[in-house]
Amino acid sequence: CGSGSPPAGRSGFSAGHRSFSSPPASPTKVCVVGGGPAGFYTAQSLLKGSPHIQVDIYERLPVPFGLVRFGVAPDHPEVKNVINTFTQTAQHKRCHFLGNVHVGKDITIQELMQAYHAVVLSYGAEGNRTMGVSGEGLPGVYSAKDFVGWYNGLPCNKELQPDLSHETAVILGQGNVALDVARILLSPLDLLKKTDITQNALETLAASKVQRVLMVGRRGPLQVACTIKELREMVNMPYTAPDMLPADFQHVAQALADLPRPRKRLTELIMKTLNEDHRGRQGVKRWGFRFFRSPLEVLPSADGSRASGIRLAVNKLEGVGDAVTAVPTSEVDEIACGMIISSIGYKSLPIDPAVPFDFKRAIVPNNMGRVEETTGLYCSGWVKRGPTGVIATTMNDSFDTARTILQDLESGAINVSVSRPGSSEVVPLLEKRGVRTVSFADWEKINAEETKQGTAVGKPREKLLDVREIMFSYGLCCLISQMTKILQSQMTLSIHSVH
Amino acid sequence: MSLVFAAGRLLSGASRVAWRKTSLCGDPRRTSARQICSRLVTGALWSENKVTVNFINRDGERITVQGSPGESLLDVVVNQDLDFDGFGACEGTLACSTCHLVFEEEVYHNLGPVTDEELDMLDLSYGLTDTSRLGCQICLSKSLDGMTVRVPESVMDIRQSGGSV
């Protein structure tokens, strides 16, 4: 990697950089909590912004990249190209990756703040919003977060074993996660076989009886939350046909002319599906939107053992523009289905009682990335602004937080006159607590093994699903204390061979 | 103060060398277009064929570089090691809009057709204009010699300059 020294003559930097021109006696130590896109983009920007900054990235899982590995759909390998840039960051001489550290449990934020000049919370949104309706806990009801984690090899979701034995699946939500799930449920197996989807998911999908996937949204076609790329993939998917209700599209055509281009193109693409009549076609799987509907109740089967349908309130819209809201009418609708996937949003969770948390918005309250009322604490990504947007949104947002930190270093708001020990104090402390960290070099061994296993079956990689398997395979098992920790963790632990 | 934008060339070396090997004009999935592009390059007189491109970066600074026919504008940014933060995150695979560029109207009309897939990604870009394209989809040719392209601000910069939270 580059030296990190700034080139001469770049406006803005040279002026800002002068305050560092007599370098601090010791490096500025910054800790990033979370090894997903927000963490890596923040680290990248910090390393680039000052040659005196050292960044340690702490990640709860033994493997890096967060939702790029565990969220991005397996049939979107091109989106995962950002991993190349993240790898460059992790390999930078002033950057260290420390996996398998559960911040908030293995070590507190306060301890990290004592060991570092600045701490950045980039831990994302591990929770999910719930529908809040009766029957939500019935077998057959899944959160999209778990379902995505299952097909993407997230260790804690590997035992999900979704029941795909019914013809109709209903997804609550119409965002890109909902479309990812619909696409995975309906994609021809031959396409999925070439992706890094887990072998376990592939086998379950091979036996799937799901023929129709309906995505339910509380508002109308003009408010649909997905982006056009994902919608076009549905439209173009082989052996499938759209299944829409023309009644949902009243007044949409008239509204088209006044829409900004992105919304207009998206709406036109949905409208196009209405004109296609596939009713007579045999052997074709169906996908569709159901608009103006909010969940009221998950309907149990006759014996009460599982979900057999969903009751929905029919909504009308009130207000104009982006502020339009759905208001339930007295009318209800029911859809019979054997599978319900709730995809109404991820949600950040508080990490440590010492950190302010806005429970209503489910974010860490902040001003341009500065955590309120806490000097030296910052945030980036979903925990900063909520779980929306594409990776580029998180990238810009993380660059923004890094800029804030650089400004605070320049202004003296972050006190760098005292040296901080960084990981040299934290790692021994973690070891004392039985936590064995996983380095980026360790991950590269895991990566090589996954790639090798994948190549053998014509896939880009075969993800290792078991934390214990990951640790055993690479000579990391020598520390009994580590195994004890893992055994005690909430992750699922049965030894599971991928093949 | 845009410290970050103005900063050094960290993280550039190795990744960019690797990229050079893999990145070719346009969407890698469209092999035929790629092959046509490379044939044009090998058949041409290299030295006479350089194409001058003027970039206006996010600080309003003009950067003049040369590329070769067959290279995409993203390739030019990468090969010339231009420091546009976050540019080309998906490495030219039509999976993001970070190589968004704004063209002069006259040049824009000479750029060739836009695919639906490119428009789809452009629709997600910040500061979309009527003459916006993705740099990864623009293949350099002699007819584009001397053009000026602007790297638009990202959303966070707009917010920053607006002074709001």
Automatic annotation (TrEMBL), chain A:
The gene is FDXR. NADP(+) binds at residues 174-177, 218-219, 230, 389. It holds the Pfam family Pyr_redox_2. InterPro entries: FAD/NAD-bd_sf, FAD/NAD-binding_dom, Ferredox_Rdtase, Ferredox_Rdtase_adrenod. Keywords: Electron transport, FAD, Flavoprotein, Mitochondrion, NADP, Oxidoreductase, Transit peptide, Transport. Residues 29-185 form the FAD/NAD(P)-binding domain. It comes from Denticeps clupeoides (denticle herring). Its cofactor is FAD. It catalyses: 2 reduced [adrenodoxin] + NADP(+) + H(+) = 2 oxidized [adrenodoxin] + NADPH. FAD binds at residues 38, 59, 67, 103, 382, 389-391. Pathway: Steroid metabolism; cholesterol metabolism. One of its GO terms (molecular function) is oxidoreductase activity. Its EC number is 1.18.1.6. This is NADPH:adrenodoxin oxidoreductase, mitochondrial.
TrEMBL record, chain B:
Residues 51-155 form the 2Fe-2S ferredoxin-type domain. Signal peptide: none annotated. It is found in: Mitochondrion matrix. Gene3D superfamilies: 3.10.20.30. Its main location: mitochondrion. Keywords: 2Fe-2S, Electron transport, Iron, Iron-sulfur, Metal-binding, Mitochondrion, Transport. It comes from the Eukaryota. GO terms for cellular component: mitochondrial matrix. One of its GO terms (biological process) is P450-containing electron transport chain. Pfam families: Fer2 (PF00111). GO terms for molecular function: 2 iron, 2 sulfur cluster binding; electron transfer activity; metal ion binding. InterPro entries: 2Fe-2S_ferredoxin-like_sf, 2Fe-2S_ferredoxin-type, Adrenodoxin-like, Adrenodoxin_Fe-S_BS, Beta-grasp_dom_sf. Its cofactor is [2Fe-2S] cluster. Belongs to the adrenodoxin/putidaredoxin family. This is 2Fe-2S ferredoxin-type domain-containing protein. It comes from Denticeps clupeoides (denticle herring).
